[in-house]
Design goal:
By secondary structure, the chain is mainly beta. The chain has one helix spanning 9-16; strands at 27-38, 43-49, 53-62, 72-81, 89-98, 102-106, 115-124, 127-137. A 4-stranded antiparallel beta sheet has the order 1-8-3-6, with no helix packed on it. It has a 4-stranded antiparallel beta sheet with strand order 2-7-4-5, with no helix packed on it. A hairpin with a 7-residue loop joins β4 (72-81) and β5 (89-98).
C-alpha cells in the first residue's frame, strides 16, 4: 500500500498562489496588478458581467520594514450600464488610503447593471510592494 500525501485545498491554494479569497466565496478575480520599488504605481482594470457586488483588495508591504509604515492612496472608478448596447453609462468614483491589507466593497452607479468596468490605481510614497486585486460577486 502506498502512502498518499493529502493537502487540504486551502493549503494547496496558498502554496500555488491562487487567491484564496475567491475560492468558495462566490468572488471572481477580474483584474490585478502588482508594482515594486520606489513609489510603485500599480493599475488594475477589470470587467464584470451582471455583478451583484464589486470589491477591491489591496496589500501594501514595505520593502524595508525598519523604515516604518508605507501608505498608499487608492483611487479609481466603476462604470456600469444596464439595458444593453447603447444604454447610458454611469460612473462612480472612489478613493481611500491604505497602509496594509484590506478589502472594500466598491460603489456601483446602478443597482442591477449588465456590465461594469472597474479601474483602480495606487499612489505610493516609499519603497514597497503594492498589490491591487479586483473582484466581482455574481
Amino acid at each position: 500500500m502506498t502512502a498518499r500525501l493529502l493537502i487540504p485545498p486551502i493549503v494547496a491554494a496558498i502554496l500555488l498562489g491562487v487567491p484564496v479569497l475567491a475560492s468558495g466565496s462566490g468572488l471572481k478575480l477580474i483584474g490585478e496588478d502588482t508594482a515594486h520599488g520606489l513609489d510603485p504605481y500599480p493599475q488594475a482594470t477589470g470587467t464584470a458581467h451582471r455583478p451583484r457586488a464589486l470589491f477591491i483588495k489591496v496589500d501594501v508591504v514595505a520593502t524595508h520594514p525598519e523604515d516604518g509604515v508605507v501608505e498608499s492612496d487608492f483611487e479609481g472608478d466603476t462604470q456600469c450600464n444596464a439595458g444593453g448596447r447603447g444604454s447610458p453609462v454611469k460612473v462612480k468614483k472612489f478613493s481611500f488610503p491604505a497602509t496594509g491589507p484590506l478589502m472594500r466593497k466598491l460603489p456601483k452607479p446602478k443597482g442591477r447593471p449588465d456590465t461594469c468596468f472597474v479601474n483602480a490605481r495606487a499612489f505610493t510614497g516609499g519603497v514597497a510592494t503594492v498589490t491591487v486585486q479586483l473582484f466581482a460577486k455574481k
